Fold:
Amino acid sequence: MSITDWPEAERPREKLLTLGPRALSDAELLAIFLRIGVTGKSAVDLARDLLVQYGGLRPLLEATQADFCKGLGLGNAKYAQLQAVLEMGRRHLSATMKAGDLLSSPDLVRQYLSAQLRHQPREVFAVLFLDNQNRLITYEELFFGTIDGAAVYPREVVRRAMVHNAAALVLAHNHPSGIAEPSQADQRITQRLQAALELIDVRILDHMVVGDLEVVSFAERGLI
Structure:
C-alpha cells in the first residue's frame, strides 16, 4: 500500500507537521528524506530495511559515499542531498554559538564538537577561537594524526590565535577508539599550550575530548 493511501495521521510528513519531528521514529524521518520507495516497498518500508542493513540511523548517516550508494534506493544524488543536510545542521550549530556566550552553553558546544569530530577515522586536533565575550570567532582543525594520536605544535596554535585576535580558546580532539577518557599525553599538551598562550594573554577555557558516546570536559574534571 502506498503511503498516500494511509490514514493522514499516520503519514510521516503529515505527522511531522502536526506533532513535530521528535514524534517520528528513525524510519519515519528517513522515509521523509527518501521521499519515495521502490517497487513493492513504501518509503517507510524501505527506510526500515535500510536501518537494519546499516545497523541504525547513525551508521547510515556516517557511511562513506561508496558504502552509502550500495543501499537500495540510494545513490550519488541522495548522498549529495544527505551531505548538504548534515552540513546545514553543522552550520546552524556554528551560527547559534556565534550568537552567545559559549560558557553558558556547554551542551551546545558538545553537540557541535561531536558533529565535527566524532566520525573522524583519525585523531584531529581542533580549536574554537573566541572573542573577549566568549563568542565564537571560528572553528579550525589544525593537526591530524593516525588512529593513535596527532602531533600538536603550540607555536602554530599561538600563531592562529593571533591571526584571529582571539581572547580565549576551547581546545578539542577526538579519540578514534571511541573512548573519551583524557590521557596523560592530553593533559601534558594542554599544559604546554596554556604556558605558550599565557605569553600573549590568551586563555584556554576548556579542552574537550570527543568519544563515540560522550564528550569529556577538562574544565568539568578540574584538569584545567
Summary: The mean pLDDT is 88. The radius of gyration is 21 Å. The first strand starts at residue 124 and ends at 130. The CA atoms of residues 17 and 198 lie 51 Å apart.
